[in-house]
Amino acid sequence: MAKIRNNYNFQFNNQFILQLPADLESENISRQVEGAAFSFVSPQKTQNPLLVSINHQLALELGFTLEELQLKDLATFLSGNRLIDGMKPYAMNYGGHQFGQWAGQLGDGRAINLGQIQTKKHGLKTLQLKGSGRTPYSRHADGLAVLRSSIREFLCSEAMFHLGIPTTRALSLCLTGDKVTRDMFYDGNPKQELGAVVCRVSSSFIRFGSFQLPAMRGDNKLLKQLVDFSIEQDFPHLGEPSVAVYIKWFQEISEKTCKLMIDWMRVGFVHGVMNTDNMSILSETIDYGPYGWIDAFDLKWTPNTTDAQGKRYCFGAQPEVAQWNLFQLGNAIYSLIEDAEPLNKILNDYALKYENLWLSMMQSKLGLDELIENNDADLFHRLEKLMSEEEVDMTIFYRVLSSFPEQPSLWLAHFKECFYDEGNLSDDYLAKFFQWLNDYQNRLVKNFSTAYERKNLMDGVNPKFVLRNYLAQQAIEKAEQGDYSMVDELLQVLQSPYSEQKEFEHFAIKRPEWAKNKAGCSMLSCSS
Ligand code: AMP
Ligand code: MG
Fold first, then answer.
1. What separation in Å is there between the alpha carbon of 91 and the centre of ligand 2?
2. Measuring CA to CA, which residue among 262, 243, 227 is closest to residue 343?
3. Pocket of ligand 1, candidates 44, 110, 307: which has the most ligand atoms within 8 Å of its Cβ, to mutate?
4. Residues with catalytic annotation?
């Protein structure tokens, strides 16, 4: 593959490949890769690369200059068609538990890291292309991605970032100019779709499964190298790697993962495929596949048709699944520690920590200055029960709650817009709902802050705009016809999710009836 001079301002500093063992075999064929953290591999050339969207703000943070963003070869570079000086592309090796079963080696089957760049403010950042061709980890799949799933990743990672939730980021979205065949629901109806590549960015793409694979293979040497590397690169504040530091490292990952779950529960995000290979060691949201956003509050909801039966990864199960995944990580590093007790303690503390953080999260969602033990927990649980009994739009409910009127006679009109079937609410339900509001109102009397301050607090944690499933789908359908305006518009709106943005009111309304059971809006599969 042709290399060009580094026209760009930034420097590559590829610590991952410098410090960890490489696969010695260079042939790009699917195979088991032992004793290596990665394989060198070149991205696939594509017919006609076209830059659809670039995240300017992120690009500047990474050290691109405004002139560089105008360079003609930006699309060729960000689609993997040209390597610039300093890039040494590689695919990472990892394993994972998929839906509760050990799946063995998985690895970057369709992700290729271009390299790590040194940024001024944020340390090393890895640029990773998703959908740029086969690697030794592709198994029988094609290593490609389609426009639909690439738009979903591009928009959602930025939505998460601006919600203040840890996530990998998306720098760019390119069309490859190639067609890709996909059977979206695995039902024997394959279609030709547009191929696309997203350039993702993170300080680390290491996953829980990165440690599981060498541990399962009994390769303690590689396991230790990976743990030490992770600590030195991304957890340097913990000190030089040692048994005590390994335990601290696990504790920090556990705490951060717990916080991530709280964030997902706060905004109504359902990842959809929380396999251990999709759990970032930095506790970032990673691998946007069949994710979804809660419209009507339902702890049992999952967007992933592959998980429709077991609902292993449904909305309400996420915190516990994260703990299960942490348990697998703990198992993987056990041989470096050889003492189960500290690991077990951390895992047990997770549940308590989650409970406490959940209470604080609900406290802020309801705008309470302080938590009154027992009483407030009951108020929170009763609210979730009420929201589960009827179809109540989660985002709208919390948003309108911050400005609910004092007079009960105005309540029904005020909350009307958050019910999906407001004409058919039973008297019994309404009585319970009003009783809850009445109790909440009485509770607010004990608050010190003014109504204005409370509203500000609530509106800062309860977003007005989230990437509703049907909005993403509408943007995709337009983009598939060559119109990217809605992708750009959503990107703009989602950059200020907590602001009123009156001009974008139409993106804050509840899911329209037609979208309730439409493919792509409520049903998604892993096919991407
Ligand atoms: P995911 O559930 O998307 O995280 O993918 C699970 C595993 O399948 C990972 O190892 C991916 O790299 C791999 N994979 C998913 N889609 C493809 C594809 N189109 N080509 C090659 N590998 C893939
Ligand atoms: Mg994955």
1. 13
2. 243
3. 110
4. 277
